[in-house]
Design goal:
Elements: H1 17-30, H2 43-55, H3 60-67, H4 71-74, H5 77-88, H6 90-99, H7 110-122, H8 126-150, H9 161-174, H10 182-196
Helix pairs in contact: 1-3, 2-3, 2-8, 3-6, 3-8, 5-6, 6-8, 7-9, 8-10, 9-10
């Protein structure tokens, strides 16, 4: 399935009760989780990523996967993935799996995990790529906003620090997208701002 044309001003995606169920499920899974940067309830990130996916022309499966893109990694691993597959279907499960860096606890070392994710992204579907770009774009925007508020100390909150975090973003940008995407272009602009900050 190809991505919807991102130059179009109309998105005819239908949102059904499946999305409602996924929203409740995501809220329940992440209820006690907070964002590393800023400490906001985690659901704010999931809603922001979902909005970016829909605004980019994503369909309902992609929107549901956006709501659940961190569920496997943060809330139960393979067992959660199996539940997602049962509740929301194979397409959603494949997108969520493609966006997950790890299904095991404890997670593998940071660099190994990121390198494995990058290798998988090189062969990912357009749907995985879209949700990934939306996720990374929202992360980078939050980092930039927090940097503007707090300065260099924000990098202490990330295992990769400034150097590792920017390496990861740039490595993602270096992977050719399945099709042109505005999300990638926006991520590149925010990463450039983060790179130039000092």
């Amino acid at each position: 399935m190809m991505m919807t044309n991102t130059n179009s001003t109309t998105n005819l995606t239908e949102i059904t009760s499946r999305f409602d169920e996924a929203l409740v499920y995501a809220t329940q899974l992440h209820r006690h989780q907070r964002r590393k940067v800023g400490g906001t309830p985690y659901i704010a990130h999931l809603l922001s990523v979902t909005a970016l996916v829909l605004e980019d022309g994503g369909d309902e499966d992609e929107a549901i996967a956006a709501l659940l893109h961190d569920a496997v990694e943060d809330q139960g691993g393979a067992e959660t993935l199996a539940e997602i597959r049962e509740r929301f279907g194979e397409t959603v499960a494949e997108i969520v799996d493609g966006c997950s860096e790890s299904e095991v606890k404890p997670k593998p070392p940071w660099k190994e995990r990121k390198e494995n994710f990058l290798e998988n992204l090189r062969h990912a579907s357009p749907q995985v790529y879209r949700v990934t770009m939306a996720d990374k774009l929202h992360n980078a925007r939050c980092m930039l906003q927090e940097y503007q508020n707090s300065g260099e100390q924000i990098w202490n909150q990330f295992r990769g620090g400034k150097e590792g975090t920017l390496w990861f973003f740039n490595a993602i940008l270096a992977i050719s997208p399945p099709v042109s995407t505005q999300l990638r272009d926006q991520l590149e602009q925010v990463v450039q701002c983060l790179t130039e900050s000092n």
